Amino acid sequence: MNKYELNRVGGIILSAAITVHKELGPGILESAYVISLERELLLKNLHTRTQVPVELTYKGAQLGKV
Fold first, then answer.
1. Distance of alpha carbon 64 from alpha carbon 2, whole angstroms
2. Which tens digit of pLDDT belongs to each residue from 17-27?
3. Helices 3-24 + 30-43 axis angle, to 10
């Protein structure tokens, strides 16, 4: 993905996150924000995957997939 495309997608994600926060407000469970953001991104034609395991390194130690 080139720099232009990264900026375009990043702008869509930021806009979606702001929309979700305005709609739901502060102080609810993270899981509500996750499912709402996933829906908002789908409405903006971005397909997502949630809770995808990634390799984690902390202070030089490999901690595995989290």
1. 29
2. 999 999 999 99
3. 130
